Amino acid sequence: MNKVFANADDAIHDLQNGDTIMLGGFGLCGIPENCIAALVRKGATNLTCISNNAGVDDFGLGLLLKTKQIKKMISSYVGENAEFERQLLSGELEVDLIPQGTLATRIQMAGMGIPAFFTPAGYGTEIAIGKEVREFKGKMHLMEHALHARFALVKAWKGDTMGNLVFRKTTRNFSTSMAKAGDITIAEVEELVEPGALNPDEIHVAGVYVHRIFKGSNYAKRIERKTTSIK
């Protein structure tokens, strides 16, 4: 099976209007920049995007919000995007806010084939409305369902043509779980090598989970918020 594609546009060729997509990264760190740009060019609409956050106004998922291609965001943190706020308050955008640990675990459970789990996070809040509640050791827990997506888009530091992936430092955050939770996982990498070139002990996602891979380019690697101090 040849998993190597020429570029992001070829890799997402069959992504359709209304699809549910997971996008790896945290803030602007480790996001699939090339795939997001290809989604903008493709013009797919009514997308449901699962991501820790929604980027900023002119970068990351903010680009898809700007073109109004996203119908629903399933996220944990969305505080850096003014366009996201405007669309939410105007009713243009559906939003499902999930506690960060719950979001990460729902994705992880999908990759592990576990349909649901119980967590105390969110009990007694609006998050609990309509959910099954059980008591464990005197503490109330909510039942949360695994979170699946038709496509998972991730960005890794290195990958081989078999789809094995190596992430660099914190860029693995949501990406390693998302890569296992998508029906079709697409990985863009900074460096694409031949099988055997990666140290097996350093591989974070095995190639069996990755369906398509390509070498990305022109990474901006933006910083979401830069804090400096004067002593």
From TrEMBL:
Gene3D superfamilies: Glutaconate Coenzyme A-transferase. This is CoA transferase subunit A. It comes from the Bacteria. It comes from Panacibacter ginsenosidivorans. Pfam families: CoA_trans (PF01144). GO terms for molecular function: succinyl-CoA:3-oxo-acid CoA-transferase activity. Keywords: Transferase. SUPFAM superfamilies: NagB/RpiA/CoA transferase-like (SSF100950).
